[in-house]
Amino acid sequence: MHEIELNLLQEIEKGRNEIIEFLRKLIRFPSVTGQEKDIQEFISSELESMGLKIDMFEPDVDKLKKSPYYEKIKIGYEGRPNVVGIYKGSGGGKSLLFNGHVDVCDPGPREAWKHDPFGGVIENGKLYGRGASDMKSGLAAMTMALKFILDQGIELKGDVILEYVVDEENTSNGTLACILKGYRADAAINCEASDLEIQPAVSGSMWFEILVRGRSASMSRIWEHVSPIEQGYKIFQAIKELYEIRVREKKHPLYPDPRGALGLFVGVFQSGTFPSNPPEICIIKGRMGILPNEKVEDAQREFIEFIKERAKFDPWLRYNPPEVQFKGYCGAPAEIDPNHPIVQTFKEAFKESLGREAVVKGHEGASDMRILVWEGIPTIVFGPGTITQMHAINEWVNVNDVIEATKVIALGILKWCGYKT
Ligand SMILES: [Zn+2]
After folding, report:
1. The pTM is what?
2. Three-state SS at 240
3. Which one of 141, 149, 158, 398 is most buried, by most CB atoms within 10 A?
């Protein structure tokens, strides 16, 4: 390792407190989706003091609507700016883009939390708070990595772009707005929680809704009633069975255990409105996960066909077929070649800075990485934070993971962008 790289890693180690204090400041902003303004102003002033060029702008809905990736919004973008910090390299190097979201999902009742969700309390090496894993620790790592590089007076050859986007918990429009504004690079890192794994793929997921009909009958003719609950339960079991089949059959090298990514289950089972009324219909809603080598349309067809086939052999359902549709959320998967130079660069940076081999695996669940990949920017997910803590009560992140991620990212930037020795 070059002396400059070694020094940088040592400085980051010495700067643990500064990094963690920055993360605690981020956590103390209650930036629940829709209320991103204050944290964005803070970040923008931090980036400015680092000497970066700042672009603070509200996503333009009219422009977004022209993109096939636009997602319908619940709240407008007035007073909810994206922040982009730009470091201009001296030239001759490759550019690198970092992407993260500043919004967090609602922490729910305060009483359910052991510590204040916006307090940033540290206990036994864990930092607690809403956004600790998803994904303010990722924001802290990407920001501090570049800050330590610049503090060391290192001159990078390639450009570094830091994106802090809004509205990610609802849509990918924040990231899309950055792309539409022209922010692109030779590669990108999405700093979502990855348990420090290098993830060149994200799985997809979508929502389905099924209507099952029974036979109506009055309370006094209950023997004529066919319960949609009973019929719906057959569909519930079919879905469970399809999940097991898919876990057995679907394979992807980056998902050696695909059970999480393929998650297929019923989240809502509704029937009836009144205790003495025999119900007429049952509504079943759920989520279907797909691997990056599957197409949304194919998976949807497989699901619909499976339910149809089941219904065909049932004495009631064959004449009263369930109505299946996919509606609401639909996030397609994405992946890049696991041998892409950005993966290799981060694997090397990981090994050199932490002294152990990186795990390369697929990300379970959706992330804005997919938008970047679809737009032709080779992207990986890499960040501190652990996926099981995302949106959890008592969300935490390992303090040490944040420092390790900062080291890997800092060294990754040097290796990818090049620097003057
Ligand atoms: Zn997130």
Report:
1. 0.92
2. helix
3. 141
At 161 the pLDDT is 98
What contacts 319, CB < 8 A, 6 or more positions away?
none
| pLDDT cut 90: percent of the chain above it | 95
Looking at residue 189, its pLDDT comes to 98
> What separation in Å is there between the alpha carbon of 127 and the centre of ligand 1?
17
What pLDDT was estimated at residue 405?
A: 98
Q: Where are the alpha helices (DSSP H) in 252-340?
A: 296-312
- Is pLDDT at 74 greater than 90 in this prediction? no
Q: 317 and 370 share a domain?
A: no
Shared domain for 347 and 322, answered yes or no, is no
Q: 135 C-alpha to center of ligand 1: Å?
A: 5
Question: Same domain for 210 and 275?
Answer: yes
Residue 252, domain CATH: 3.30.70.360
Q: What is the predicted pLDDT for the residue at 11?
A: 98
Instruction: Show which of 305, 331, 357 is a domain's final residue.
Output: 331
Whether 368 shows a pLDDT value over 90: the answer reads yes
Residue 95 shares a structural domain with residue 196: yes
CA of 73 to the centre of ligand 1 (A): 17
CA 194 to ligand 1 center in whole angstroms: 10
Per-residue pLDDT of 8-56, as tens digits, reads: 999 999 999 999 999 999 999 999 999 999 999 999 999 999 999 999 9
Same domain, 273 and 391: no
Q: Which residues pair with 335 in a beta bridge?
A: 201
Domain, as residue range, for 294: 204-331
CA of 101 to the centre of ligand 1 (A): 7
Domain count, the chain: 2
Q: Give 314 Cα–ligand 1 centroid separation in angstroms.
A: 43
Alpha carbons 31 and 103: distance in angstroms, whole number: 5
Per-state percent for the chain, helix, strand, coil, to nearest 5? 40, 20, 40
Domain edge (last residue) among 308, 331, 354: 331
Half-sphere exposure of 114 toward its Cβ, with a 13 Å CA cutoff? 13
pLDDT band at 359; cut points 50, 70, 90: very high
Q: Are residues 94 and 22 in the same domain?
A: yes
Name the amino acid, one letter, at 54: I
